[in-house]
Amino acid sequence: MAQDPDQAKKLQELLKMLSLSQNDASKLTQPQRKQFEEYKFWKTQPVPRFDDEVEDEGPINSSQRPENIPNEPLPLLSEFEWCTVDITDPHQLEDVFVLLNENYVEDQDATFRFNYSREFFNWSLKPPGWRKDWHVGVRTRQSKRLVAFISAVPATLRVRTKLVKSVEINFLCIHKKLRSKRLTPILIKEVTRRVNKQDIWQALYTAGVVLPSPAATCRYAHRPLNWSKLYEVGFTGLPANASKTQMIAKYTLPKEIDTPGLRPLEEKDLDEVYDLLEKYQSRFDLVQVFTKEEFRHLLLSSTSVVYSYVVESNNKITDFVSFYSLPFTVLNNPHYKELGIGYLFYYASDADFDYSDRYDSEGSLKLKKRLNRLISDVCIKARDLKMDVFNAMSCQDNSLFLDDLKFGPGDGFLNFYLFNYRVRPILGGLRKDNSFDAEKRSNVGVVML
Ligand SMILES: CC(C)(COP(=O)(O)OP(=O)(O)OC[C@H]1O[C@@H](n2cnc3c(N)ncnc32)[C@H](O)[C@@H]1OP(=O)(O)O)[C@@H](O)C(=O)NCCC(=O)NCCS
Question: Is 326 tagged catalytic?
Answer without folding.
Answer: no
